[in-house]
């Protein structure tokens, strides 16, 4: 807060930064990390999103028995499900 006031940001600029500027960049970076985890380590991506549960067990089984492709598809599905 001190640095924003020190640099002379107006109240409108401060609200734009608080509402979308920095948080939007953080969200984009996280989605890139999630995509990379879905591709290279699908069980890790599912565990980060849902924790240790049925989705993680299903993903591990799909990843092992379908040579990775099933786990990747399932990981993308789990991470996009709301």
Kindly describe this structure.
It contains five helices and no strands. With 82 residues, it is an all-alpha fold. It is 84% helix and 0% strand. The radius of gyration is 19 Å and the shape is globular.
In brief, what are we looking at here?
The chain is mostly helical. It has helices at 2-7, 11-40, 42-50, 54-65, 69-80. Mean pLDDT is 78; it is low at 2-7.
Structural class per helix/strand content? mainly alpha
Calculate the mean pLDDT score and round it: 78
Note the gap between the termini: 34 Å
The residue ranges in which pLDDT falls below 50 over 5 or more consecutive positions are 2-7
Query: Strand fraction band?
Result: under 5%
The number of helical elements comes to 5
Report the C-alpha radius of gyration, rounded. Answer: 19 Å
Main β-sheet: number of strands, strand sense, barrel status? none
Tell me the series of helices and strands, N- to C-terminal: HHHHH
Per the principal axes of the C-alpha atoms, what is the gross shape? globular
Kindly state the number of beta strands: 0
Name the helicity range. Answer: over 70%
